[in-house]
Write a structure and sequence with these properties.
Mean pLDDT: 90
Largest sheet: 2 strands, antiparallel
Strand order of the largest sheet: 1-2
Structural class: mainly alpha
Helix content: 40-55%
Low-confidence stretches: 1-12
Order of helices and strands: HEEHHHHHHHH
Shape: globular
Radius of gyration: 19 Å
Number of helices: 9
Distance between the termini: 44 Å
Oligomer: single chain
Number of domains: 2
């Protein structure tokens, strides 16, 4: 029996602050509904939740029923059908748990937390952290400040460097940081296409996505 028809379906709802809900709603407009494009390296995708991601991160069993919570058809595995069945609220739970909360996006000023969130959803949390650090370095390099290590670890050094970029006038402030982040994202997308030429048809949309970051 499909879990969508079960009286015992666990209640999974979108949680978090108003800021998260706004950021999530924006991403839903970008990611769209169910797509199963054979060229997409993430596999079947719905609301930005790919099969590759769901099979890994959706395998927890919080309600203790013996099935992975995101084995939505309860057939013993997580596959494309489960991606098709996922609801907006269920996707939102994953967004909050594995991206927004995991990256502590709320602790960053707007729109930095939102940009970090967008890129974590799009390319993974590690890639998003590195983009943040590279954007910081791009701003620091203009005035000879020592750059930080790009290690995907957002610790005190990265936080201090970001504060420096945002508060020292000659480093350009928020406007300069946002544009530096966008450019790092563009570079990431171009690098994907260089490595996987069959992804070229997605490039225009990806670059448009980069252009909209922070708006």
């Amino acid at each position: 029996m499909d879990r969508e028809q079960s009286d015992n379906e666990p209640e999974i709802v979108v949680r978090g602050s108003r800021r998260f809900v706004r950021a999530y709603a924006r991403l839903l407009g970008i990611e769209g509904s169910f797509v199963d494009d054979p060229v997409d390296r993430g596999g079947a995708t719905k609301y930005g939740i790919s099969l590759r991601f769901l099979a890994t991160e959706g395998a927890f069993d919080e309600n203790g029923d013996g099935y992975a919570d995101y084995d939505l058809d309860m057939d013993g595995d997580i596959d494309g059908r489960d991606v098709r069945l996922i609801t907006v609220d269920q996707a939102g739970y994953l967004y909050h748990r594995f991206f927004w909360a995991a990256l502590d996006c709320e602790s960053f000023p707007e729109p930095i937390g939102e940009m970090l969130f967008d890129q974590a959803v799009n390319g993974g949390a590690k890639a998003a952290r590195k983009l943040l650090q590279r954007a910081i370095n791009a701003c620091l390099a203009r005035t000879g400040y020592s750059m930080i290590e790009v290690d995907a670890k957002i610790g005190p050094e990265t936080r201090r460097a970001l504060d420096r970029v945002l508060t020292i006038d000659r480093l350009g402030g928020m406007e300069a940081f946002v544009e530096a982040f966008r450019e790092e994202v563009r570079d990431r997308y171009r690098a994907i296409v260089r490595r996987y030429p069959d992804q070229k048809r997605f490039l225009r949309g990806w670059l448009n996505r980069a252009d909209e970051l922070g708006r």
